[in-house]
């Protein structure tokens, strides 16, 4: 029987269940009567009003709902967190700009100043993982992301066009109006207006921010580390080998 139900009815039910609403509560939110049971059974068509409410309240893409798009969410109005300025190389390819700790302090205020971006160093990584997308590098300040990301390390992030397209519980570079943070992003259940920013270091408490306060969002996919410490095991092994050589030398001197 399930296969006889229209795709929009199945996806409508899927949305309700993922949001955690009862059929009665969901119907009230959408102005769809007393229950959504008939919609989910395919007995009642989804009205234009309900489609618009799904879009405005939960950013559900109408084309996805009816099986015409792979993108489930779409911003109803604005909501772009993509890069405000994109740098390109002489070959007209996207360049990766590097924003150190000092530059990051002024990044939110200069986010649309193309002249300011020209003061930042840039480079290009000729690997397939960095094609067909815009990337930016930020230097991490503080120890809130230990042990995964250490102070002064660099993280490279891929541009995210909208909050709706952000993956839950992934690490992001979050550009607010007054700061640049590197945090794990967690979507708040039943809310599209807020997200929770979580530090990996348990000494730091989570931060809830309004999505409208996010200017840009970059999903971290790699990092650059310098001055990598040698593994303790390797150092210890070398010390043991050196001690053994010294011991052999001392033994050889004791032989008649």
Report what the structure shows.
Helix content is about 30%, strand content about 20%. By secondary structure, it is α+β, with helices and mostly antiparallel strands. The protein has two domains: about 1-65, 434 Repressor (Amino-terminal Domain) (Orthogonal Bundle), CATH 1.10.260.40; about 95-225, Umud Fragment, subunit A, CATH 2.10.109.10. A nine-stranded mixed beta sheet has the order 2-1-3-4-9-5-6-7-8.
Q: Which terms summarize this structure?
A:
single chain; 256 residues; alpha+beta; 434 Repressor (Amino-terminal Domain); Umud Fragment, subunit A
Main structural class: alpha+beta
What's the end-to-end separation, in Å? 95 Å
* Beta-strand share of residues: 15-25%
Assign the CATH superfamily of the largest domain: Umud Fragment, subunit A
Strand order of the largest sheet: 2-1-3-4-9-5-6-7-8
The CATH topology of the largest domain is Umud Fragment, subunit A
pLDDT averaged over residues: 85
Helix content: 25-40%
CATH class descriptor of the largest domain: Mainly Beta
Radius of gyration: 26 Å
Sketch the topology as an H/E string, one letter per element: HHHHHEHHEEEEEEEEH
Number of helices: 8
Overall 3D form:
elongated
Q: Give the tally of β-strands.
A: 9
What is this structure's SSE topology?
Elements: H1 7-19, H2 23-30, H3 37-41, H4 48-58, H5 62-65, E1 96-99, H6 101-106, H7 114-117, E2 122-123, E3 135-139, E4 154-159, E5 170-175, E6 180-187, E7 194-198, E8 207-210, E9 216-224, H8 232-254
Parallel strand pairs: 1-3
Antiparallel strand pairs: 1-2, 3-4, 4-9, 5-6, 5-9, 6-7, 7-8
């Amino acid at each position: 029987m399930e296969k006889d139900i229209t795709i929009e009815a199945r996806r409508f039910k899927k949305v309700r269940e993922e949001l955690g609403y009862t059929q009665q509560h969901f119907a009230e939110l959408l102005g769809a009567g007393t229950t959504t049971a008939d919609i989910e059974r395919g007995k009642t068509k989804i009205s234009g009003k309900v489609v618009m409410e799904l879009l405005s309240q939960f950013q559900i893409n109408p084309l996805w709902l009816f099986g015409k798009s792979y993108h489930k969410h779409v911003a109803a109005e604005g909501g772009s967190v993509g890069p405000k300025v994109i740098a390109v190389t002489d070959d007209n390819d996207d360049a990766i700009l590097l924003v150190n700790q000092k530059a990051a302090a002024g990044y939110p205020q200069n986010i649309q100043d193309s002249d300011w971006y020209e003061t930042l160093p840039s480079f290009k990584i000729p690997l397939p993982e960095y094609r067909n997308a815009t990337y930016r590098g930020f230097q991490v300040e503080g120890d809130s992301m230990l042990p995964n990301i250490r102070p002064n390390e660099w993280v490279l992030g891929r541009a995210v066009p909208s909050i709706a397209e952000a993956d839950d519980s992934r690490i992001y570079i979050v550009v607010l109006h007054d700061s640049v943070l590197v945090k794990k992003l967690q979507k708040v259940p039943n809310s599209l207006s807020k997200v929770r920013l979580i530090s990996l270091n348990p000494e730091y408490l989570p931060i809830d921010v309004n999505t409208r306060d996010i200017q840009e969002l970059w999903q971290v996919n790699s990092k650059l580390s310098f001055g990598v410490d040698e593994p303790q095991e390797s150092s210890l092994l070398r010390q043991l080998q050196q001690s053994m050589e010294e011991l052999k030398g001392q033994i050889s001197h004791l032989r008649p």
